[in-house]
Amino acid sequence: MEIAGSLSVIGYGLSVIGAGVGVGLSALGATQAQARQPEMQSKIFTTFIMGCAFSEALALIGFVLALIK
Amino acid sequence: MGPLDELGHHIEELLKDLGGMDMFNFGWGSITTYSVWIIIALVVCLVVFLVVKSRMRLVPKMGPVAAIEATVDYIRKDIGHGVLGSKEAVDRHMPFIFTVFFFILGANLIGLIPGAKAASGTFSATLVLALISFIYFNYYGIKHSGVLHYVKNIAPAGIMPGLNIAVWLIELMSLCLRLVTLSVRLFANMYAGHIVLGAFSILTTLFVFPVINEFTLANLAQGSVSIAWMVLLIAMYAMELLVAFIQAYVFSLLSAVYVMLATSEH
């Protein structure tokens, strides 16, 4: 089997690792906070989306760099 | 052998199509397919809101008007009162936030119609959106505390002298990076989503073609795989519907957060 392609795809995979951990951690924090204080749900959700957006940005920059040839 | 051989060729065509092309070229610039989709998104937003405005009642009936009212209410409560805080700030900045939110939402949702393109799926459009947001929050930050004070306050107060210059430089860099992250986040989400949707629909058709060309038992067994691709396509479509809302929400939320950071006292 022949493997072809560029190194940028591997770079994208590496950048996803960190973002995946980041989104997972923020989801963990959000679920725990919601279990402790269900009445704060909407505020926690906003913070959770924001945390996801910040960590996701790194993976998306990796995605864009993988597209640049 | 097999339908997968043609996949690369079709994906290349898909990427070329998503790249957009010139419709009219003036020399100094051109109207691309994406410009047309931006105008369509704007017109759709305008028409929807003019219709909604004429149908507004004290007690809304169920339907599109109630849905839009509920969305506006949610955004006002979550972003307005949750992030911006005070009533004056909500009254001053919410029109901008709503405009950004509904334009991006409209563009994203129009892009999900098969055959249509998302206006937010091209980097130039999202860069301009981010630039508008960037200028907006810097303008209100400078208006709030004056140029010198605003520039000085990029770094938080209370850091020992010497170190605060380094912190100021880092904070200035992160301020300018907001422009990049805002635009790249929206663009890459929409672009990647459309590539995935396109790839799954290409796979569905590639696997079903042999069955149409020659109806044999072997071809039928291979063609039945396309049902799985179809299911995946529908699942991803639902996912993209969610992403369309979340990305519009994230963009307006972050714009509000930046406005709040720029106009708050340090």
List keywords for this structure.
heterodimer; A: 69 residues; mainly alpha; B: two-stranded antiparallel sheet; 9 helices; 2 strands
Query: What is the percentage of strand-forming residues of chain A?
Result: under 5%
Number of domains of chain B: 1
| pLDDT averaged residue by residue of chain B | 86
Low-confidence blocks of residues of chain A: none
Give the mean pLDDT of chain A.
Answer: 84
Give Rg of chain B in angstroms: 23 Å
Give a short summary of the structure.
Chain A is mainly α. Chain A is built from two helices and no strands. Chain B contains nine helices and two strands; from the N terminus they run H-E-E-H-H-H-H-H-H-H-H.
Explain what you see.
The complex is a heterodimer of chains A (69) and B (266). Helix content of chain A is 83%, strand content 0%. Chain A is built from two helices and no strands. Chain A has helices at 7-36, 41-67. In chain A, helix 1 (7-36) runs antiparallel to helix 2 (41-67). Chain A is elongated and about 50 Å long. With 266 residues, chain B is mostly helical. Chain B has nine helices and two strands, in the order αββαααααααα. Chain B has helices at 7-18, 33-54, 64-84, 87-111, 123-145, 147-152, 163-213, 217-223, 225-263; strands at residues 22-25, 30-32. Chain B has a two-stranded antiparallel sheet. In chain B, strand 1 and strand 2 (30-32) form a beta hairpin. The longest helix of chain B has 51 residues, at 163-213. The mean pLDDT of chain B is 86. Chains A and B meet through helix 2 of A and helix 3, helix 7 and helix 9 of B.
